[in-house]
């Protein structure tokens, strides 16, 4: 049967993997290529590399980092950050990525989703949504851009639907409220998005334990879940996590 | 020489990278029917729309592949490349496949056993009922996980070498003599995928 995916995320700044709490308070976690290989060997089903400062500083994605990381990586590899045009996406694919993740640029010009898909297929386009709940909770959760710096006024569920209709292959939903807290995913928000679209939804933000993953795959109806800090600092590996998930009745890829 | 056919259907980088990793040389990315004719192995990757395969006929590659297979060269279709081995796909009515295997590729059903079925089918799923005499899947155990991403799927045929279940069973691998195809992505399927590629390059 189709398994739930565990995705290891590398947030990269200035060529190094970093990890923040609620998008700030950044600490160094190592070399991207080395960490990508380590995660794949430790059982991660996919690797995501996000150049978290690219949009903010208006510079291109670190193609050389992508090339190095992709060189011997034989699991799906997604790259995000600084992809603003179909040409930017092509450069990232040529460097070895299988999918691109677009966020701010898709909000600024939603046509970009279809333009990348036309050349590389819908499966290669992930629309990333950074979300923060409003006063009404899930209902008025709002989309943020520029690494969580700017509110857009867009409702999360509505934007997810539009991204799907424009040809997104997957949605990567990050809760800014839970990000880096290791206190669990925002299952309610994830379920709302997952029920609104047909395409797979990747939950992100708040992973701290196997129970959190089991919860977001169950109650949160996520197809995949992404985490960063719990892997980088050796709290757990994907393999340990998957053993615990199997015990909890979640179907995951094993052996890996 | 292994010819990897480029017909502008998605990204070839990962497939070429994996083949280079295994054989290091003799991998040629081409659009030339003449190169396909002299290759002893031909790989047809492809993600995206079935319509893209129309270019194979327009460039004379369909005929070249037909000749290449007839003279005994090994052929491996990946994803849309597997689907192209069938008669066609409801994704692009009027664009013919090679017709090496009978039947049309169809979209996953919206409902399966009373429940909504998401598509595309994205992620790691298992290979089942692997034929013991499959050369492509030699050493790959039933239940091994491989990576898929697709919305259309090929029907079950006599030459089906492995099935995968998602909204019912479909052909995950097909093999008859020198003609082979996989719906999953060996280049993205970690050790199991590299094993499949190694089996192919060592034929």
Account of the protein in words:
The complex is a heterodimer of chains A (256) and B (203). Chain A is an alpha/beta fold. Chain A is 33% helix and 29% strand. Chain A has 10 helices and 12 strands. The longest helix of chain A is centred in the N-terminal third of the chain and has 10 residues. Chain A is globular. Chain A starts with a strand and ends in a 9-residue tail after the last helix. The model of chain A has no long low-confidence stretch (mean pLDDT 90). With 203 residues, chain B is an alpha/beta fold. Chain B has one domain: Rossmann fold, CATH 3.40.50. Chain B is built from 6 helices and 14 strands. In chain B, the strands form 4 sheets. In chain B, strands 2-1-3-4-14-13-12 form a 7-stranded mixed β-sheet. A 3-stranded mixed β-sheet of chain B has the order 5-6-11, with no helix packed on it. Chain B is globular. The model of chain B has no long low-confidence stretch (mean pLDDT 95). Classes of the chains: A alpha/beta (256), B alpha/beta (203).
- From the N-terminal CA to the C-terminal CA of chain A, the straight-line distance is 16 Å
Report the CATH topology name of chain B. Rossmann fold
How many individual β-strands of chain A?
A: 12
Report Rg of chain A. Answer: 16 Å
């Amino acid at each position: 049967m189709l398994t739930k995916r565990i995705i290891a995320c590398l947030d990269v700044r200035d060529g190094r993997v970093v990890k923040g709490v609620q998008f700030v308070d950044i600490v160094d976690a190592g070399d991207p290529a080395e960490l990508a290989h380590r995660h794949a060997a430790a059982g991660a089903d996919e690797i995501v590399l996000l150049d978290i400062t690219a949009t903010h500083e208006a510079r291109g994605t670190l193609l050389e980092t992508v090339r190095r990381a992709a060189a011997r990586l034989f699991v799906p590899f997604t790259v995000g950050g600084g992809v603003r045009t179909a040409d930017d996406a092509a450069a990232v694919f040529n460097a070895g990525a299988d999918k691109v993740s677009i966020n701010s640029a898709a909000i600024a010009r939603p046509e970009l989703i279809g333009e990348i898909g036309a050349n590389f297929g819908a499966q290669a386009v992930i629309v990333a949504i950074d979300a923060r709940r409003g006063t009404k909770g899930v209902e008025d959760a709002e989309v943020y851009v520029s690494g969580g710096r700017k509110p857009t006024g867009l409702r999360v569920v509505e934007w997810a639907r539009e991204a799907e209709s424009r040809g997104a292959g997957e949605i990567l939903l990050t809760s800014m409220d839970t990000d880096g807290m290791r206190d669990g995913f925002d299952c309610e928000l994830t379920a709302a998005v997952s029920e609104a679209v047909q395409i797979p939804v990747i939950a992100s933000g708040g992973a701290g334990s196997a129970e959190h993953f089991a919860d977001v795959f169950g109650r949160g109806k996520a197809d995949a879940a992404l985490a960063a800090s719990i892997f980088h600092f050796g709290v757990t590996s994907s393999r340990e996590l998957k053993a615990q998930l199997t015990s909890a009745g979640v179907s995951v890829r094993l052996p890996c | 020489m292994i010819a990897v056919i480029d017909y502008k259907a998605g990204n070839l980088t990962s497939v070429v990278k994996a083949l280079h990793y295994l054989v290091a040389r003799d991998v040629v990315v081409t659009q030339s029917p003449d190169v396909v004719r002299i290759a002893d192995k031909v790989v047809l990757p492809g993600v995206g729309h079935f319509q893209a395969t129309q270019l194979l006929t327009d460039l004379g590659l369909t005929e070249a592949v037909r000749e290449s297979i007839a003279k005994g060269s090994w052929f491996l279709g990946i994803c849309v490349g597997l689907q192209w081995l069938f008669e066609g796909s409801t994704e692009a009515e009027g664009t013919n496949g090679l017709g090496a295997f009978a039947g049309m590729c169809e979209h996953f059903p919206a409902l399966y056993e009373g429940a909504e079925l998401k598509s595309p089918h994205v992620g790691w799923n298992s290979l089942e009922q692997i034929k013991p005499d499959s050369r492509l899947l030699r050493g790959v155990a039933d239940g091994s996980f491989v990576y898929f991403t697709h919305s259309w799927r090929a029907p079950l045929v006599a030459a089906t070498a492995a099935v995968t279940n998602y909204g019912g069973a479909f052909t995950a691998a097909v093999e008859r003599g020198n003609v082979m195809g996989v719906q999953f992505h060996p280049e993205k399927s970690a050790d199991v995928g590299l094993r499949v590629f190694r089996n192919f390059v060592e034929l």
